């Protein structure tokens, strides 16, 4: 018996990185997992892995910048497996890393859409189906970047802070439906990490040293179990929480100031 036997989960961005790790972990516990992913090749590959690991996998093409695409993904999950018990809002669209004053309205809109709006749309679409099952689990994603005010991520930090507010509001309101709503702030060795490690010798070692546990997280073995806790009955009395899953990185934080940025800029003459 697995912790997620007879449960149906949908994971946005489930085709890679942390989403893939969570999907594989859920599969090991017997879940049917819908991979809502924009990339067909990676999405289908992970859906196949889910089935191979003992779950039931299904891929649906999903663009989190589109409300209709998200709503259609929820509907496809219900049509394929008969209901929905777990929603993991993991996907977002990365934005250009520039200073706050250089962020365009277009960048801001894209980031807010793929973070807080996409999470909002998915939760609202999932609600009636979770109510029909007598309850459910929502896992949203925030970031340590919000806590430290990470440089070059002003739009991302704003969106993820909004996700925390949405998580707490939904937890307060949806408890009456037996739905728990929690957030995770994970860091792990996903695609971005591996690219940075390849481009910057010593990056992986420095990243590990920043964490009290002295190592970087694995999406499946380190992040997956935390998501499993929030998705299963093990967390049946936990709601409205933000869980840091980062090897303790949130304790010391980190310095994100880019090199070459002045400590104090000269007064602007208008």
Strand order of the largest sheet: 3-2-1-4-5-6-7
The CATH superfamily appears as: NAD(P)-binding Rossmann-like Domain
Instruction: Tally the beta strands.
Output: 7
Quaternary status: single chain
Helix content: 40-55%
Mean pLDDT, to the nearest integer, reads: 96
Helix count equals: 9
Would you identify the CATH architecture? 3-Layer(aba) Sandwich
CATH class: Alpha Beta
Shape: globular
SS content category: alpha/beta
**N-C termini distance:** 69 Å
The percentage of residues in β strands lies in 5-15%
Number of domains: 1
Q: What pattern of helices and strands is seen along the backbone?
A: EHEHEHEHEHHEHHHE
Largest sheet: 7 strands, parallel
Low-confidence stretches: none
Radius of gyration, CA atoms, in whole angstroms: 19 Å
How are the SSEs ordered, and which strands pair?
Layout: E1 8-12, H1 17-28, E2 32-37, H2 40-52, E3 56-61, H3 67-81, E4 86-89, H4 105-133, E5 136-141, H5 144-148, H6 154-174, E6 179-186, H7 191-199, H8 203-209, H9 219-231, E7 242-245
Parallel strand pairs: 1-2, 1-4, 2-3, 4-5, 5-6, 6-7
Protein described:
By secondary structure, the protein is of the alpha/beta class. It has one domain: NAD(P)-binding Rossmann-like Domain (Rossmann fold). It is built from 9 helices and 7 strands, in the order βαβαβαβαβααβαααβ. The protein has a 7-stranded parallel sheet with strand order 3-2-1-4-5-6-7, with helices on both faces. The longest helix is centred in the middle third of the chain and has 29 residues, at 105-133. The chain is globular, with a radius of gyration of 19 Å. 45% of the residues are buried.
